[in-house]
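Marked as duplicate of an earlier ticket. Keeping the data here for the record.
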Amino acid sequence: MSTRRRYRQGLPNVLHGRAELPRRISADGALAEGNPPGFAALSSVGCPIAARLGFPLRIAKVRSRTVLRDRPDYDNQWVTWMMIELGSGFAPMEWQGNIGPVVAWRDDGGDVSADDMCLLNDYLDGLLDQYSEGPGSVVPDHDITPAVWADFKRRAAERYDDINI
């Protein structure tokens, strides 16, 4: 059994150890579409790679629970990688730096674990290497598919205990 913390019922996974998470649900329990309980007020965006691989994720920037003073405090490479555009392998400018802490959750309310985020990061590491080979080196219809993800996940599964995506 994994000793890592598991995120249940669509609750978000923190992708920067300094996130201050919202703690209140609106009085009527209403949620913004795609946001889990307690996160209705967050402005979130979809993760293009995750959607393409078949497990849509939402990403939202959140306030830090500690003071972030220097530019490196705001670095969040994992999220930059998660937000790359399929055709270019580059993230939009707003996701390339000065990001800070974020939370990620599944659109379908499914579980998200720390292992899931590590597995996705490992996949993206290899994909970005492939993008670096030049224009046309990644063909999204061939290289970024649920079948490719399933194969990668099968090969990497022995390194992870808690895979849900």
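See parent ticket for discussion. Strands lie at 6-7, 13-14, 44-46, 57-61, 102-106, 112-113.
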